[in-house]
Amino acid sequence: MKKVIEADEGFTIFAPNEAAFDALGEKKRLQLGDIRNAEVSEKIASYDVVFEPVTADQLYNSSGIVTEGGVVLAERTVSGGFFGVGGKEDGGVTLNGAKVVKSLEFADATKTGIVHEVDGFISPSILWRYADQRE
């Protein structure tokens, strides 16, 4: 975390909210805390960090973002319609399916930090395959 805060140009953090952790289920929450999975947990968390400020508008107007973990797909959210047909963009954005719930921006004289609350984990779900199983 210190490395993120000390980034020269600022930073962006995608912070999974309580609903995101609830949706993981008990098994995956235990895997995150298991010392055997420290490397996997670190990789999952690396998708939540960008070493420059990325605003909600920038997310909305992009098709993806490059995080410390890798590329994350960004899509505009749509409301209404039937099976995705006839819906209207509602101004929201998802990252690998996790919706950005709200954003907080703060700045000092030298840099800007942005925290986006998300309702899911934005890392690829395949990373869980590498987590040791609890018995």
Question: How does this structure look, described?
Answer:
The protein is α+β, with helices and mostly antiparallel strands and 135 residues long. It contains 5 helices and 7 strands, in the order H-E-H-H-H-E-H-E-E-E-E-E. The chain has helices at residues 2-5, 18-24, 26-33, 38-46, 56-60, and strands spanning 10-16, 49-50, 64-66, 71-79, 88-95, 98-107, 112-118. Strands 2-1-7-6-5-4-3 form a 7-stranded mixed β-sheet. The chain is flat. The mean pLDDT is 87. It comes from Cyclostephanos tholiformis. Residues 1-122 form the FAS1 domain. This is FAS1 domain-containing protein.
Got a strand count? 7
Number of domains: 1
Relative strand content: 25-35%
CATH class identity: Mainly Beta
- Rg (CA only): 16 Å
- Helical content class: 10-25%
Strand order of the largest sheet: 2-1-7-6-5-4-3
Shape: flat
Alpha-carbon distance between the termini?
A: 31 Å
Number of helices: 5
> What string, H for helix and E for strand, traces the elements in order?
HEHHHEHEEEEE
Oligomer: single chain
User: Are there runs of 5+ residues with pLDDT below 50, and where?
Assistant: none
- By CATH, the architecture is named Roll
Given the helix and strand composition, which structural class is it?
Answer: alpha+beta
What does the average pLDDT come to?
A: 87
Question: What about the largest sheet?
Answer: 7 strands, mixed
